[in-house]
């Protein structure tokens, strides 16, 4: 029986991001994907939000996505556009880029890191014990691993086999999304029909001189709400044609589909993201309506949170209990997401009373404070892992400051490219050495860097905060400790996140 550190079920954007994070940690990951090849990725998701672009910037790959997509203000709530251009981030926008391209770029990145994806292979079952997991594959092989991570979607076999409950709400609406050729030219854009929303858009485009140029011919992107909620059968061209006729009076001669998928407002969340040596990420852990385009983004951020922690546990740099923080931090984030997508679904129902509620919401979101709060939530820039007390930076994303080191100017996110924790000293060089904590005891785990920075520290929603003298930054870019002229609490933070000091 072959042995691996981690088996990842699913090579969509979530599984690939996790595989890349583990590779950066030097951890062997065996990745399986039931699709025969990556070309069948489809385009269920249409872009990246600001915080996800930042996460890729922390690994030095954001430019790959930006080179192929279209930047725009994509954050919104219940049809109300939320401009984040004034937020203090280098990426104060979203990115229009279809999932198949996002996945292709991630696949190229993981290949560069030495990751091999086994396409046409899926997990059929597994059993776990105290030391590992025996994973049964569709090839007839069994693989032994220390951990198994289910990134295998909303119908996750990993979740079901692990016996993890998936409570929530059944669908009340369903929609079809497809790429299909049409003999007639539809009216491109988003429209409201008799029982929902439909839209048309050319999916293939390129950017020239800052303008979007759509390709001639080729498939048309279609999204159409179905008259009756459905969620069991795989959608067909006939289903798409019937839905278009009901919504538009014609199917525009739809034929030769390259991709048809159905999504609903089913809303469910796993009770726990971990059962022993089995973990869940992405849609395997939470499903919801696509309103706000948040699904792929929250899944990638799940993987960024889990990857470095799992890497440290596998490498025996941190105790296994570190994995418990994955559920503790990410479960509340998804719970909030489920709530805001359910609200958005309710607000788009074709009912005069609901429309009145929507008008009130739109009026509220026209005010500065509610607009900033919702814009930060929808773009992922307000994620806060706590605690509530202490310095406002604690548990929040580290700003991508341009600092000066002994080697010269550098951006903070550049210091995170290797996915290692860094302790940034903004005070006098060497002041740590005069305090009670022996920083050198963690020298093999955490990189101490003396840096200089002049200017205000600005955070989305919170605004300017007092500049600290030192900051401990986790590999995923979140602040684990803040110092103000003293190292009080530093040893505890280092031990909690990066294990006990070296002997």
TrEMBL record:
GO molecular function: FAD binding; oxidoreductase activity, acting on paired donors, with incorporation or reduction of molecular oxygen, NAD(P)H as one donor, and incorporation of one atom of oxygen
Keyword terms, alphabetized: FAD, Flavoprotein
The keyword Ligase is assigned to this record: no
Pfam families: FAD_binding_3, Rng_hyd_C
Domain of life: Bacteria
Domain FAD-binding: 5-341
InterPro entries on file: FAD-bd, FAD/NAD-bd_sf, RIFMO-like
Co-factor requirement: FAD
Protein name: FAD-binding domain-containing protein
Organism annotation: Arthrobacter terricola
Classification lineage: Bacteria, Bacillati, Actinomycetota, Actinomycetes, Micrococcales
